[in-house]
Design goal:
Elements: H1 10-21, H2 28-44, H3 52-69, H4 92-108, H5 124-143
Length: 144
């Protein structure tokens, strides 16, 4: 297993995604659209939160671990809870466009961010880092 990709900012995630999109592997569009869904949910709210024990105890522990180690590993096939996964055949350009729009919206958002479905309350900086790690994990899964 190769070393995980480490991305700490959404801008770095976009740079990587744009570079890979030129020779996009199968599933790239859907994976980037999935990452966009998660970013948008951090603004609008996640439709299906995990149970209280996960949000209060387990999720924050996992978030701290990800932030400390600088990368994430998760089930890249799992949809955002409560949302339909993006269509598998979504082309690379559309998936990248959705990711770019979500990042722009996150960057422009000045209000309070919604609790994460598993991590609970997350600061803006931590959300940016974990969203970047989420993109990185999906890019790793596609390019291994």
């Amino acid at each position: 297993m190769s070393a995980p990709r480490r991305l700490a900012t959404l801008e770095a995630a976009l740079v990587e995604a744009r570079a890979i999109s030129n020779a996009a592997p199968p599933g790239f569009g859907a994976a980037m659209a999935h990452c966009a869904q998660s970013i948008v949910c951090s603004i609008d709210g996640y439709p299906k939160p995990a149970g209280w024990l996960v949000r209060a105890v387990l999720g924050p522990l996992v978030l701290r671990r990800f932030l400390r180690q600088g990368f994430m590993r998760h089930d890249t096939r799992a949809p955002v809870p409560g949302l339909a996964p993006p269509e598998a055949s979504l082309d690379a350009a559309e998936g990248l466009a959705r990711l770019e729009a979500a990042v722009a919206r996150f960057s422009a958002h000045g209000g309070t961010l919604a609790p994460h479905f598993a991590y609970g309350a997350v600061s803006r900086d931590a959300y940016e880092a974990v969203h970047a790690m989420h993109v990185a994990n999906h890019l790793d899964a596609l390019t291994v």
